[in-house]
Structures are given as structure tokens and as C-alpha cells.
Specification:
alpha+beta, Rossmann fold, 3 domains, 37% helix, elongated
Length: 420
């Protein structure tokens, strides 16, 4: 067990990390173009934050959180989602006092959920999330949906569909709860144990249950869209207008409620069709009451989360190869005891912004060339006795076999020219 990663976790190895960096660069670019700035919050928070924010009727709180007592006997939880921590940071550092809206994103943020590991779902996974605080208009809901859709499309994720719904607000949701409970009243005995508990405390959660028997019982359940108040209905209609104006295809799915209790009004999912069935690759919505529930003044907010491992898995499924960067522009080789000029040249090349390295293992010159070729180095720079005495270096293009002997002091410029 000492040399085996815990179940549900995965190492990102040096040979694979460039794929993550590629995705991260695209995500940062998409966020910055819309004025979102990075926020980094701790891996763990006080457990109460998630009990109050996520909701104690959710699967996350009831079954999936990694919670423990620290040495001060405080209850601590590894964060199971990113939004609650972002709201806590907003309140602690008074970000709401700055010019609004406050737009932020988090990237490669570790998320922990104790659940059965499966394809695209790990106990520790990493998210790209975006949050916008202080904007109540449906245009910002649409902004985030469009940003996620375009990002995934540009990366190459195919068969994407945008699914949207409105789950109302505290003004209109009680009427729907009553209507839903009336529908479910004769079906309670057919629900799973969790949903029988949810029936009284939060019947909306029954719609989100993944147990097949529960899904069958809610198949003909009333739609919350029929119970929206005027404000929520107008907000949802404006969201649809924005998506239509942007030319993004979408469908209304009244069964989307998301797995977190803090959502209000808009909820959405970006779904891709795979040979194994539909897969949610991004999900989010509006949470206008969460800031107030966590101790702040009322502040509207909306956001989404996107699993990085899942995106990489989908790209693999599409056969999309992420371009692998070259490890070295130039590899410095040397003969005999000429390690000092080789070391100095390596540092000079790096100072000029080139990717360079030299042999650190005492290999023969032949073995150094073999290693340079294995790493994919574009050029080699060789220093033998003659080059060391004359202050020169022999450059060789490993593909074309072209060779040039140049002064070591000016080698960087020649390397750039040979690289094209």
C-alpha cells in the first residue's frame, strides 16, 4: 500500500502533465477574455460551511464528504465543491465592497467526494470553476453558459447540448413543493430510503435521485416551470432570448435541479453524447441566496464547475491529440573533461530563453547523442577539446544533420536561427 495511490485518486505524471497545462491555458484565456480573475481557496474548510451552504439533504453532505476532527477538535472537511469556499472568501475579504460584479475563477482546484470511482469520476478530481457575484441579470447566466460551451467546442468536445431549467426562488418554490409532494404522496413507499427522508424535508431532491426506481416514480411529476413567479419566469425567458441571440442551441429540461441546495432560478448542464451514454461535462446555475445564508448581505450570484479529468477523458474519446511541446531546443554534449564549458553554455542558453540541458550522468559522447535523440531535442551543441580551446561549439540539427561551428558566446542566436 505504501507505493500505491489511494483508491479513487490518480497521479499526473511528467509525460502527461503537458495535457493538463494545455487545458489550463485555454481555460485561463477564456476566463480572462470575459474579465474573470483567479481565486485560490484552501483545500479544506470548516464543516459548517458546507452544511449550511451545500445543504444537509444532499448526497454530498449525507454520504460523500471527507470530514475529520483536527488537533484542536474542530470539524474540518476537504472541500466537496468550490462555490461555498469562494463565497466564504468573498465575505472574509470584503470583496463585495469593490466594484461589482466581482468575477472570479478557480482552476485545477482539488475536489473530494467519497463515492464509487468510475470512468470520469474520481474521489479526488480537479475543477475549473467560474463565479460571478453581484449581477442579477440573466445576461450573466447566459455569459457563463456561452463561455463554457465555446471553450468545450474549441477544445474539440463534440455532440454538445445545453440543457437549462429554472427551479424558482423562495417565493414560488413552496407552491411547487406542495404540488410535488401531492404527486409523490402515493408513491413514497416505492422511493429509496434517502428519498423517503427527502420527501418531507426537500422534495425537490427526489427529482435528482439516480436510483432507477425513483427515476421511474418521478417520470410524470409536475414541472416546476408551471409554478414560477413573474420574476423567475421573466428571468428564464430573458436567458432563453440571450442564448437564441448568441446562436447556441439549447433545450429546456425541467428535470434538472442539480445536486446542491443553494441553487435558485437558473440551473444548467452541458451534456455530451458518448458511446456509453450522455455525460454531463459542466454544470452550474444561480445561487442568489447563498451569500446571505452564509452571513453576508443579499448578493445575487451565478457560476459553474467543470471537471478537468472528465474533459481530458472526452478529448481522448474524440481522438483529439493535444500537441506535445518539445522538451529541449538544444542538448549540450561534451567530450572528456569539458564539463565546465558545457555547463556554462547550458546556463547561457537558458538565460537566452531556450530550453536546454546537458548530460548529468557521466555518459560517453555516443550515449549523450543517443539520449538527446530520445528526448526529441531539436539540436545538439557539442564541445570537444578543439571547441573548448577555441571557445566555439559545434551545433547539429538532429533532423536534417546540418552542422555549424560558431563562437560559444553567440551560440544562442544561431540556435534560434536553426530552429526557424
Amino acid at each position: 500500500m505504501l507505493t500505491q495511490a489511494p483508491r479513487g485518486t490518480r497521479d499526473v505524471l511528467p509525460a502527461d502533465s503537458y495535457r493538463w497545462q494545455y487545458l489550463e491555458s485555454k481555460m485561463r484565456k477564456a476566463a480572462s477574455e470575459a474579465g474573470y480573475r483567479e481565486m485560490r481557496t484552501p483545500v479544506f474548510e470548516h464543516t459548517e460551511l458546507f452544511l449550511r451552504g451545500v445543504g444537509d439533504t444532499t448526497d454530498i453532505v449525507q454520504k460523500e464528504m471527507y470530514t475529520f476532527k483536527d488537533k484542536g477538535d474542530r470539524s474540518i472537511t476537504l472541500k466537496p465543491e468550490g462555490t461555498a469556499g469562494a463565497v466564504r472568501a468573498l465575505l472574509e475579504h470584503n470583496l463585495y465592497a469593490d466594484a461589482l460584479p466581482c468575477k472570479c475563477y478557480y482552476l485545477n482546484a482539488p475536489i473530494f467526494r467519497y463515492e464509487a470511482p468510475q470512468s470520469g469520476r474520481l474521489r479526488e478530481h480537479h475543477q475549473f470553476g467560474m463565479e460571478c457575484f453581484g449581477a442579477k441579470d440573466a445576461t450573466v447566466d447566459a455569459e457563463l453558459i456561452l463561455l463554457a460551451y465555446r471553450l468545450l467546442s474549441e477544445l474539440g468536445v463534440g455532440n454538445l447540448s445545453v440543457n437549462i431549467n429554472s427551479i424558482g426562488c423562495p417565493n414560488c418554490r413552496p407552491a411547487y413543493h406542495a404540488k410535488l409532494k401531492q404527486y409523490l404522496a402515493g408513491k413514497v413507499d416505492s422511493l429509496c430510503a434517502d428519498c423517503r427522508n427527502r420527501f418531507e424535508r426537500n422534495p425537490l431532491r427526489v427529482l435528482d435521485c439516480k436510483v432507477p426506481t425513483c427515476q421511474e416514480q418521478v417520470r410524470d411529476a409536475p414541472s416546476i416551470l408551471d409554478c414560477l413567479c413573474d420574476e423567475c419566469r421573466a428571468h428564464f425567458e430573458k436567458l432563453q432570448q440571450c442564448l437564441t441571440l448568441a446562436g447556441i442551441p439549447y433545450r429546456i429540461n425541467s428535470r434538472i435541479v442539480r445536486g446542491l441546495d443553494y441553487y435558485t432560478k437558473t440551473v444548467f448542464e452541458l451534456i455530451t453524447a458518448t458511446p456509453q451514454g450522455n455525460l454531463t461535462v459542466c454544470g452550474g446555475g444561480r445561487y442568489d441566496n447563498l451569500v446571505e445564508e452564509l452571513g453576508g448581505d443579499p448578493l445575487p450570484a451565478v457560476g459553474f464547475g467543470m471537471g478537468i479529468e472528465r474533459v481530458l477523458m472526452l478529448l481522448d474519446g474524440e481522438g483529439i491529440a493535444i500537441p506535445e511541446p518539445r522538451l529541449y531546443d538544444v542538448f549540450v554534449t561534451y567530450m572528456g573533461d569539458n564539463w565546465q564549458p558545457a555547463f556554462a553554455l547550458t546556463q547561457r542558453l537558458r538565460a537566452a530563453g531556450l530550453r536546454a540541458d546537458m548530460d548529468h550522468c557521466g555518459r560517453s559522447l555516443k550515449a549523450q547523442f543517443k539520449y538527446a535523440n530520445k528526448t526529441g531535442a531539436a539540436l545538439t551543441a557539442t564541445i570537444g577539446d578543439e571547441e573548448a580551446a577555441s571557445g566555439t561549439v559545434k551545433l547539429k540539427n538532429m533532423e536534417t544533420r546540418e552542422e555549424k561551428t560558431v563562437p560559444a558566446d553567440g551560440a544562442a542566436e544561431t540556435v534560434r536561427a536553426m530552429l526557424g
